[in-house]
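Request: How about a record?
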Amino acid sequence: MDAIVLVGGQGTRLRPLTSTRHKSLVPVLNRPAIDYLFDWLERSGIERVVLALGQANEDLAATYPPGKRGAIQILPIIERERLESGGAIRHAVQTAGIEGRFVVLNGDIYVDFDFHAAIQAHVGFGADLTLALHEEEDPSAFGVAVVDGEGLVTGFVEKPPRGEAPSRLVNAGVWIFEPGLVDEIPPGAVRVEETLFPSLVARRRRVLGHRFEGHWADLGTPQRYLDLNRELLGGRNAITAGALIAAGAVVGGSAVGAGCRVDEGARVIDSILWEGVEVGAGATVERCILADGVVVGAGARAEGVVAGKGSRIGTGAVVPPGTLMEAGGRYDGTHG
């Protein structure tokens, strides 16, 4: 069975982190986020993964060239124009020669559930399309599916106001397609979530909402990305070999990437440090995401800060919580 992973987006909601790195390559516990999707697809018995790459995705294409990765075959396909999800699926199916049933995944999610059970449900229901659904306590930031007692999807509500959602089941970005559906995707650059899916439901086609038990997270914003890392860490640390942690430094509930240095007396708590990050003596970094090459000066304090590649926090500076620092930016305590 083939899988199409939609990775053509520009990751605008994750900026400044994605200003210099593809959103699927942002590290989760010091590994590219998309690696976890590949692991899950391999465990699920997928034989080939088609990467639907958009423009300016050269770093992702270079990281995952055509060939084998474990038991799965990776086939990157580059789009020459903006296609959105519908156009990307059609292009991938035609270019890769996909003929049978296939699965489509958004590339900016973390997911781990029993895919074999989803396939069994899809086949048993006689579904044309199956949408994996995950229950969220607050679904207001997501697309919500309404299902009947049999699991048939009867409607959608996009980002309902808080407390007004008709369901807490959100579209998890994992969809099982029967091959004939590709011909029903409208032409051009269209989103299947806004065209094909509502059309199928309106025509009472067999669209199954498969509620799964398992782990799911959307990595689309810095806060959700940080939350996923912290959840997977569970209060522990993930420190890459070669990172230098001074004897008097404190690191707790954090991921620290290759080439990082945390100096004497510094504190790094509930944070994500990519690669080559330097935290000076006596500095405090808490609930932060620091991209490659960020430098935090001695005695500085950063809480809830998202810093792009190569940005610098000056010695003794106190950065206001919620600050977003663009790549190469500087904060010295008087201006950002």
